[in-house]
Amino acid sequence: MPNPDTRSETGCCVGVDLGGTNIQSGVIDPKGRIVGRDKRKTDPDSGPEGVIDRMVASIDAACKEADVNPKQLSVVGIGAPGPVDEARGVVLEAVNLRWENLALGSILAKRLGVPVGLSNDANAGLIAEHRLGAARGTRHVLGVWVGTGVGGALVLNGALHTGAFHTAGEIGHVLTDPWSPPGSRSLEHACSRTAIVDRLLRLIRANHASSLEEISGGRLNKIKSRHLLEAYTSGDPLVVEVIDDAAYRLGVAIGGFVTMLSLECVVLGGGLTEAMGELLVATIRRGVVRTAFPEACRAVRVVESELGDDAGILGAALLAQDGLPGA
Protein backbone atom coordinates (compact mmCIF):
# COMPACT_ATOMS: atom_id res chain seq x y z
CA MET A 1 0.00 0.00 0.00
CA PRO A 2 1.07 3.66 -0.28
CA ASN A 3 3.31 5.29 2.32
CA PRO A 4 1.48 5.17 5.70
CA ASP A 5 2.03 8.90 6.23
CA THR A 6 0.04 9.77 3.11
CA ARG A 7 -2.59 7.13 3.76
CA SER A 8 -3.32 8.44 7.23
CA GLU A 9 -4.61 11.68 5.67
CA THR A 10 -7.21 9.83 3.58
CA GLY A 11 -8.35 7.10 5.99
CA CYS A 12 -9.68 3.75 4.83
CA CYS A 13 -10.21 2.79 1.21
CA VAL A 14 -11.76 -0.19 -0.54
CA GLY A 15 -10.39 -2.43 -3.26
CA VAL A 16 -12.73 -4.55 -5.38
CA ASP A 17 -11.64 -7.42 -7.58
CA LEU A 18 -14.41 -7.91 -10.14
CA GLY A 19 -14.10 -11.27 -11.85
CA GLY A 20 -16.25 -13.26 -14.20
CA THR A 21 -17.14 -15.63 -11.34
CA ASN A 22 -16.71 -13.70 -8.08
CA ILE A 23 -16.74 -10.19 -6.67
CA GLN A 24 -14.22 -9.74 -3.85
CA SER A 25 -14.10 -6.57 -1.77
CA GLY A 26 -11.70 -5.52 0.96
CA VAL A 27 -11.55 -2.51 3.29
CA ILE A 28 -7.94 -1.38 3.75
CA ASP A 29 -6.98 0.66 6.78
CA PRO A 30 -4.30 3.42 6.91
CA LYS A 31 -1.65 0.80 7.80
CA GLY A 32 -2.37 -1.22 4.64
CA ARG A 33 -4.23 -4.04 6.43
CA ILE A 34 -7.40 -5.61 5.04
CA VAL A 35 -9.83 -5.18 7.95
CA GLY A 36 -13.11 -6.14 6.30
CA ARG A 37 -13.96 -8.51 3.47
CA ASP A 38 -16.80 -9.75 1.33
CA LYS A 39 -17.01 -12.31 -1.45
CA ARG A 40 -20.03 -13.16 -3.56
CA LYS A 41 -20.94 -14.44 -7.00
CA THR A 42 -20.76 -12.00 -9.89
CA ASP A 43 -23.81 -13.41 -11.71
CA PRO A 44 -23.05 -11.81 -15.10
CA ASP A 45 -26.39 -13.08 -16.45
CA SER A 46 -28.07 -10.42 -14.31
CA GLY A 47 -26.65 -7.76 -16.67
CA PRO A 48 -24.61 -4.65 -15.82
CA GLU A 49 -27.23 -3.29 -13.43
CA GLY A 50 -27.40 -6.55 -11.48
CA VAL A 51 -23.62 -6.86 -11.25
CA ILE A 52 -23.27 -3.24 -10.12
CA ASP A 53 -25.94 -3.81 -7.46
CA ARG A 54 -23.93 -6.79 -6.20
CA MET A 55 -20.72 -4.74 -6.19
CA VAL A 56 -22.35 -2.03 -4.07
CA ALA A 57 -23.75 -4.67 -1.70
CA SER A 58 -20.32 -6.29 -1.46
CA ILE A 59 -18.63 -2.97 -0.62
CA ASP A 60 -21.29 -2.24 2.00
CA ALA A 61 -20.85 -5.70 3.55
CA ALA A 62 -17.06 -5.33 3.73
CA CYS A 63 -17.45 -1.89 5.32
CA LYS A 64 -19.93 -3.27 7.84
CA GLU A 65 -17.46 -5.97 8.85
CA ALA A 66 -14.74 -3.32 9.24
CA ASP A 67 -17.10 -0.95 11.10
CA VAL A 68 -16.44 1.76 8.51
CA ASN A 69 -18.97 4.20 7.07
CA PRO A 70 -18.89 3.71 3.24
CA LYS A 71 -19.47 7.46 2.78
CA GLN A 72 -16.22 8.20 4.62
CA LEU A 73 -13.94 6.13 2.39
CA SER A 74 -11.09 8.04 0.78
CA VAL A 75 -11.50 6.14 -2.50
CA VAL A 76 -12.84 2.91 -3.96
CA GLY A 77 -10.64 1.07 -6.45
CA ILE A 78 -12.17 -1.37 -8.91
CA GLY A 79 -10.20 -3.95 -10.87
CA ALA A 80 -12.42 -4.97 -13.81
CA PRO A 81 -11.82 -7.63 -16.48
CA GLY A 82 -10.88 -6.62 -20.01
CA PRO A 83 -9.34 -3.44 -21.45
CA VAL A 84 -10.12 -0.38 -19.34
CA ASP A 85 -9.77 3.34 -20.10
CA GLU A 86 -8.63 4.43 -16.65
CA ALA A 87 -8.80 8.16 -17.39
CA ARG A 88 -12.48 7.97 -18.35
CA GLY A 89 -13.41 5.16 -15.97
CA VAL A 90 -14.79 3.05 -18.83
CA VAL A 91 -14.68 -0.73 -19.26
CA LEU A 92 -14.08 -0.96 -23.00
CA GLU A 93 -14.88 -4.65 -23.37
CA ALA A 94 -15.28 -7.33 -20.72
CA VAL A 95 -15.81 -10.57 -22.63
CA ASN A 96 -16.75 -12.75 -19.66
CA LEU A 97 -19.30 -10.16 -18.46
CA ARG A 98 -20.51 -9.30 -21.98
CA TRP A 99 -19.94 -5.57 -21.38
CA GLU A 100 -18.93 -2.94 -23.89
CA ASN A 101 -18.10 0.73 -23.23
CA LEU A 102 -19.60 0.73 -19.73
CA ALA A 103 -18.85 3.88 -17.69
CA LEU A 104 -18.44 1.83 -14.53
CA GLY A 105 -16.35 4.45 -12.71
CA SER A 106 -18.89 7.26 -12.90
CA ILE A 107 -21.85 4.92 -12.24
CA LEU A 108 -20.27 3.62 -9.05
CA ALA A 109 -19.05 7.04 -7.93
CA LYS A 110 -22.64 8.29 -8.16
CA ARG A 111 -23.97 5.24 -6.29
CA LEU A 112 -21.32 5.32 -3.56
CA GLY A 113 -20.78 9.06 -3.14
CA VAL A 114 -16.97 8.68 -3.00
CA PRO A 115 -14.20 8.87 -5.63
CA VAL A 116 -13.82 5.70 -7.70
CA GLY A 117 -10.70 4.63 -9.58
CA LEU A 118 -11.07 2.00 -12.30
CA SER A 119 -8.32 -0.29 -13.53
CA ASN A 120 -7.95 -3.60 -15.31
CA ASP A 121 -8.08 -6.52 -12.85
CA ALA A 122 -4.85 -8.10 -14.10
CA ASN A 123 -3.07 -4.74 -13.92
CA ALA A 124 -4.29 -4.39 -10.34
CA GLY A 125 -3.07 -7.86 -9.42
CA LEU A 126 0.35 -7.31 -10.97
CA ILE A 127 0.90 -3.89 -9.41
CA ALA A 128 0.23 -5.43 -5.98
CA GLU A 129 2.66 -8.27 -6.65
CA HIS A 130 5.23 -5.79 -7.97
CA ARG A 131 5.07 -3.50 -4.94
CA LEU A 132 4.20 -5.97 -2.19
CA GLY A 133 4.54 -9.56 -3.40
CA ALA A 134 6.36 -12.02 -5.64
CA ALA A 135 7.77 -9.43 -8.08
CA ARG A 136 9.25 -7.02 -5.53
CA GLY A 137 12.54 -5.56 -6.73
CA THR A 138 12.02 -6.40 -10.40
CA ARG A 139 11.67 -3.99 -13.33
CA HIS A 140 10.34 -6.12 -16.24
CA VAL A 141 7.48 -8.43 -15.30
CA LEU A 142 4.54 -10.22 -16.92
CA GLY A 143 1.58 -11.21 -14.74
CA VAL A 144 -0.69 -14.00 -15.98
CA TRP A 145 -3.95 -14.82 -14.19
CA VAL A 146 -5.59 -18.16 -15.00
CA GLY A 147 -9.21 -18.47 -13.94
CA THR A 148 -12.52 -17.93 -15.71
CA GLY A 149 -10.37 -16.43 -18.47
CA VAL A 150 -6.67 -15.71 -18.96
CA GLY A 151 -5.70 -12.18 -17.96
CA GLY A 152 -2.33 -10.53 -18.34
CA ALA A 153 -0.48 -7.37 -17.34
CA LEU A 154 2.94 -5.81 -17.85
CA VAL A 155 5.37 -3.83 -15.75
CA LEU A 156 8.18 -2.46 -17.91
CA ASN A 157 11.05 -0.33 -16.62
CA GLY A 158 9.48 -0.50 -13.18
CA ALA A 159 6.11 1.01 -14.17
CA LEU A 160 2.76 -0.40 -15.22
CA HIS A 161 2.56 -0.42 -19.03
CA THR A 162 -0.91 -0.32 -20.61
CA GLY A 163 -0.06 0.91 -24.12
CA ALA A 164 -1.83 3.20 -26.57
CA PHE A 165 -5.09 1.24 -26.58
CA HIS A 166 -5.13 0.01 -22.95
CA THR A 167 -4.49 -3.61 -23.95
CA ALA A 168 -0.81 -4.18 -23.13
CA GLY A 169 -0.32 -7.54 -21.43
CA GLU A 170 -3.68 -9.00 -22.55
CA ILE A 171 -2.16 -12.31 -23.62
CA GLY A 172 -5.41 -14.24 -23.20
CA HIS A 173 -6.76 -12.73 -26.41
CA VAL A 174 -3.67 -13.47 -28.46
CA LEU A 175 -4.54 -15.93 -31.24
CA THR A 176 -2.49 -19.10 -31.13
CA ASP A 177 -4.38 -21.03 -33.82
CA PRO A 178 -6.16 -18.59 -36.15
CA TRP A 179 -7.36 -21.37 -38.48
CA SER A 180 -9.31 -23.19 -35.77
CA PRO A 181 -13.09 -22.70 -35.58
CA PRO A 182 -14.35 -19.57 -33.82
CA GLY A 183 -14.21 -19.94 -30.06
CA SER A 184 -11.05 -22.06 -30.10
CA ARG A 185 -8.36 -19.73 -31.45
CA SER A 186 -6.90 -17.82 -28.50
CA LEU A 187 -4.93 -18.63 -25.36
CA GLU A 188 -8.05 -17.97 -23.30
CA HIS A 189 -9.96 -20.46 -25.44
CA ALA A 190 -7.28 -23.09 -24.79
CA CYS A 191 -5.81 -22.45 -21.34
CA SER A 192 -8.38 -20.91 -18.98
CA ARG A 193 -10.13 -22.96 -16.32
CA THR A 194 -13.32 -22.53 -18.36
CA ALA A 195 -11.62 -24.01 -21.43
CA ILE A 196 -10.14 -26.89 -19.43
CA VAL A 197 -13.54 -27.77 -17.95
CA ASP A 198 -15.27 -27.52 -21.34
CA ARG A 199 -12.69 -29.83 -22.90
CA LEU A 200 -13.02 -32.35 -20.09
CA LEU A 201 -16.80 -32.35 -20.35
CA ARG A 202 -16.66 -33.03 -24.09
CA LEU A 203 -14.26 -35.92 -23.53
CA ILE A 204 -16.26 -37.38 -20.62
CA ARG A 205 -19.46 -37.22 -22.68
CA ALA A 206 -17.58 -39.05 -25.44
CA ASN A 207 -17.04 -41.94 -22.98
CA HIS A 208 -13.56 -41.06 -21.74
CA ALA A 209 -13.26 -42.31 -18.17
CA SER A 210 -12.73 -39.76 -15.39
CA SER A 211 -13.22 -39.51 -11.63
CA LEU A 212 -14.66 -36.01 -12.03
CA GLU A 213 -18.25 -37.22 -12.11
CA GLU A 214 -17.85 -38.83 -8.69
CA ILE A 215 -15.76 -35.97 -7.27
CA SER A 216 -18.33 -33.36 -8.38
CA GLY A 217 -21.23 -35.39 -7.04
CA GLY A 218 -22.55 -35.90 -10.54
CA ARG A 219 -22.77 -32.15 -11.16
CA LEU A 220 -20.44 -31.96 -14.13
CA ASN A 221 -21.78 -28.51 -15.02
CA LYS A 222 -20.52 -27.25 -11.61
CA ILE A 223 -16.88 -28.34 -11.72
CA LYS A 224 -14.67 -26.04 -9.63
CA SER A 225 -10.91 -25.60 -9.36
CA ARG A 226 -10.91 -27.70 -6.19
CA HIS A 227 -12.49 -30.60 -8.11
CA LEU A 228 -9.80 -30.35 -10.77
CA LEU A 229 -7.11 -30.37 -8.07
CA GLU A 230 -8.57 -33.44 -6.37
CA ALA A 231 -8.82 -35.36 -9.65
CA TYR A 232 -5.32 -34.27 -10.69
CA THR A 233 -3.64 -35.23 -7.41
CA SER A 234 -5.44 -38.59 -7.41
CA GLY A 235 -3.83 -39.30 -10.79
CA ASP A 236 -6.93 -39.15 -12.99
CA PRO A 237 -5.27 -39.73 -16.40
CA LEU A 238 -7.76 -37.62 -18.38
CA VAL A 239 -7.59 -34.65 -16.02
CA VAL A 240 -3.78 -34.81 -15.84
CA GLU A 241 -3.50 -34.91 -19.63
CA VAL A 242 -5.88 -32.00 -20.25
CA ILE A 243 -4.49 -29.73 -17.53
CA ASP A 244 -0.85 -30.45 -18.40
CA ASP A 245 -1.57 -29.79 -22.07
CA ALA A 246 -3.22 -26.43 -21.30
CA ALA A 247 -0.48 -25.42 -18.87
CA TYR A 248 2.32 -26.31 -21.26
CA ARG A 249 0.62 -24.46 -24.14
CA LEU A 250 0.37 -21.39 -21.92
CA GLY A 251 4.02 -21.70 -20.95
CA VAL A 252 5.12 -21.95 -24.57
CA ALA A 253 3.24 -18.74 -25.37
CA ILE A 254 4.66 -16.97 -22.31
CA GLY A 255 8.15 -18.00 -23.42
CA GLY A 256 7.62 -16.01 -26.61
CA PHE A 257 6.70 -12.91 -24.61
CA VAL A 258 9.76 -13.41 -22.41
CA THR A 259 11.90 -13.37 -25.56
CA MET A 260 10.12 -10.41 -27.13
CA LEU A 261 10.17 -8.20 -24.02
CA SER A 262 13.28 -9.59 -22.29
CA LEU A 263 11.37 -10.17 -19.07
CA GLU A 264 13.08 -11.13 -15.83
CA CYS A 265 10.02 -12.43 -14.01
CA VAL A 266 6.60 -13.98 -14.70
CA VAL A 267 4.03 -14.03 -11.88
CA LEU A 268 1.22 -16.58 -12.15
CA GLY A 269 -2.06 -16.07 -10.30
CA GLY A 270 -5.79 -16.56 -10.65
CA GLY A 271 -8.20 -19.10 -9.23
CA LEU A 272 -6.81 -22.18 -10.95
CA THR A 273 -3.22 -21.27 -10.09
CA GLU A 274 -4.14 -20.66 -6.45
CA ALA A 275 -5.90 -24.03 -6.27
CA MET A 276 -3.15 -26.07 -7.93
CA GLY A 277 -0.04 -24.14 -6.96
CA GLU A 278 3.29 -25.59 -8.04
CA LEU A 279 1.56 -28.50 -9.83
CA LEU A 280 0.38 -26.02 -12.45
CA VAL A 281 3.27 -23.54 -12.19
CA ALA A 282 5.93 -26.20 -12.82
CA THR A 283 4.32 -27.28 -16.09
CA ILE A 284 3.94 -23.68 -17.26
CA ARG A 285 7.56 -23.06 -16.30
CA ARG A 286 8.69 -26.00 -18.47
CA GLY A 287 6.92 -24.48 -21.45
CA VAL A 288 8.53 -21.09 -20.82
CA VAL A 289 12.02 -22.57 -20.59
CA ARG A 290 11.39 -24.65 -23.69
CA THR A 291 10.69 -21.62 -25.91
CA ALA A 292 12.45 -18.59 -24.38
CA PHE A 293 15.36 -17.48 -26.57
CA PRO A 294 18.30 -17.13 -26.29
CA GLU A 295 19.70 -19.19 -23.43
CA ALA A 296 20.01 -16.11 -21.20
CA CYS A 297 16.21 -15.61 -21.29
CA ARG A 298 15.70 -19.03 -19.73
CA ALA A 299 16.89 -17.59 -16.43
CA VAL A 300 13.50 -15.85 -16.15
CA ARG A 301 11.80 -16.46 -12.79
CA VAL A 302 8.37 -18.07 -13.17
CA VAL A 303 6.70 -17.85 -9.77
CA GLU A 304 3.32 -18.15 -8.11
CA SER A 305 1.55 -15.09 -6.73
CA GLU A 306 2.39 -14.40 -3.08
CA LEU A 307 -0.75 -12.40 -2.39
CA GLY A 308 -3.36 -14.78 -3.80
CA ASP A 309 -6.90 -13.40 -3.68
CA ASP A 310 -5.63 -10.26 -1.98
CA ALA A 311 -3.58 -9.18 -5.01
CA GLY A 312 -6.57 -7.84 -6.94
CA ILE A 313 -8.06 -6.12 -3.89
CA LEU A 314 -4.80 -4.45 -2.84
CA GLY A 315 -3.79 -3.54 -6.39
CA ALA A 316 -7.14 -1.95 -7.22
CA ALA A 317 -6.82 0.18 -4.08
CA LEU A 318 -3.20 1.07 -4.84
CA LEU A 319 -4.00 2.25 -8.36
CA ALA A 320 -7.03 4.21 -7.14
CA GLN A 321 -4.88 5.86 -4.47
CA ASP A 322 -2.29 6.71 -7.14
CA GLY A 323 -4.99 8.60 -9.02
CA LEU A 324 -6.06 10.79 -6.11
CA PRO A 325 -5.16 14.50 -6.32
CA GLY A 326 -1.73 15.03 -4.81
CA ALA A 327 -0.75 11.35 -5.08
Please outline what is shown here:
This protein has helices at residues 4-7, 47-66, 104-112, 121-132, 187-191, 193-205, 212-215, 225-233, 237-261, 271-276, 278-291, 310-322, and strands at residues 13-18, 22-28, 34-41, 76-80, 84-85, 90-94, 99-102, 116-120, 141-146, 150-156, 159-161, 265-269, 301-304. With 327 residues, it is an alpha/beta fold.
What does this protein structure show overall?
- This protein is α/β, with parallel strands linked by helices.
- It has two domains: 136 residues, ATPase, nucleotide binding domain (Nucleotidyltransferase, domain 5, 2-Layer Sandwich), CATH 3.30.420; 168 residues, ATPase, nucleotide binding domain (Nucleotidyltransferase, domain 5, 2-Layer Sandwich).
- 41% of the residues lie in helices and 20% in strands.
- The protein has twelve helices and 13 strands.
- The strands form three sheets. It has a five-stranded mixed beta sheet with strand order 3-2-1-4-8. It has a five-stranded mixed beta sheet with strand order 11-10-9-12-13, with helices on both faces.
- The protein is globular, with a radius of gyration of 19 Å.
- It starts with a helix and ends in a 5-residue tail after the last helix.
- The N terminus is likely disordered.
